[in-house]
Amino acid sequence: GDNYSQADLTWINRVSTLSGGYYGSRDDRHSWFEAAGSVVLMDNSLFFARQINDAFIVVSTGNYPNIAVNYENRKVGVTDKNGHLLIPWATAWYPGKVTLDTLPLPTDTEAVTVEKRIAVREGSGALVDFPVNRVRSATLVFVDARGQPLPVGTPVEEVNSKQRGLVGYDGVVWFSHLGRHNEVKINAGELRCSVQFELPSSTPVPQRIGPVSCPS
User: Fold this and answer.
1) Where is each PapC-like C-terminal domain found (predicted)?
2) Yes or no: is domain 135-213 CATH 2.60.40.2070?
3) Nearest to residue 9, comparing CAs of 37, 31, 28?
4) Is 37 exposed, middle or buried (0-12, 13-18, 19+ CB in 10 A)?
C-alpha cells in the first residue's frame, strides 16, 4: 500500500559491466550503481576489459596495427595502433594456441613466427611477442651487351647478404631481405658485372632495377 516499486538495468559493453537501479516507496526511495571491469598495464600500454576471472594475454606485434589475432582458433580481434591486443579470457594453466593472420600484411613485411603456445598462471597475465619485420625486396633485370636477356639459370649473388639466385625468364632475378645499400654481382664464365643500388626504407612493391648490362 506504500506504492513500493523497484527497477534495475544492466549494460554490458566491450570493456565493462554497468548496473544500476532503484527501490523503495514514494517517500523512501534508494538508488544504487555498480561497475565491474578490469584495467591492465603491460608493455607500456593500458587496456580496459570486462572483469578478468581467470587469466589474460597481451599480444604484441612490434607496433604493427590491424593484425588479426586468434586464440584457440577463435578470432579475438586486431592489434591496435601500438600493435597490441588484450585477450582477457585466456584459460589458466592451459597451453593455449595464439596465432596471427598475416595474409593482410603488406608485401614488404613478414612475421618471424605466426603461432605460439602459452600457459598462464591463474590470476595473472603474460606478454606474447610476435616480431613483425619490414622486408626490402628488389627485382633486377640483366641483359647482355646486345641488350638481350641473360640466359636462364645464370648464377647471381647479392654481396652484402650473401644471397644467391638464378636469372629467370626475361633476364629477371628477385631478391628479398635486402638492406638499404646493396651490390649484386654476376661472375659466370665471360659474364662478369656488378650493380650497386639503394632501396628506400620500405618497398610496398619490389623495386625494379635495370636493365643492367652484363658484361658492363
Assistant:
1) 143-200
2) yes
3) 31
4) middle
Burial of 112 (0-12, 13-18, 19+ CB in 10 A): exposed
Q: Which pLDDT belongs to residue 112?
A: 87
Domain positions in the chain are 12-133, 135-213
Whether the Cβ atoms of residue 88 and residue 61 lie closer than 8 Å to each other: no
Where does residue 134 fall: left (phi above 0), alpha (psi -120 to 50 degrees), or beta otherwise? beta
Question: Mean per-residue pLDDT for 20-28?
Answer: 82
The pTM for the full model equals 0.65
Please name the fold of domain 12-133.
Answer: Immunoglobulin-like (2.60.40)
Strand order in the sheet with 207-213: 172-178, 136-143, 207-213
pLDDT over 70 (residue 85): yes
Nearest to 178 by CA among 151, 196, 155: 196
Q: Count Cβ atoms within 10 A of the Cβ of residue 48 and give its class: 0-12 exposed, 13-18 middle, 19 or more buried.
A: middle
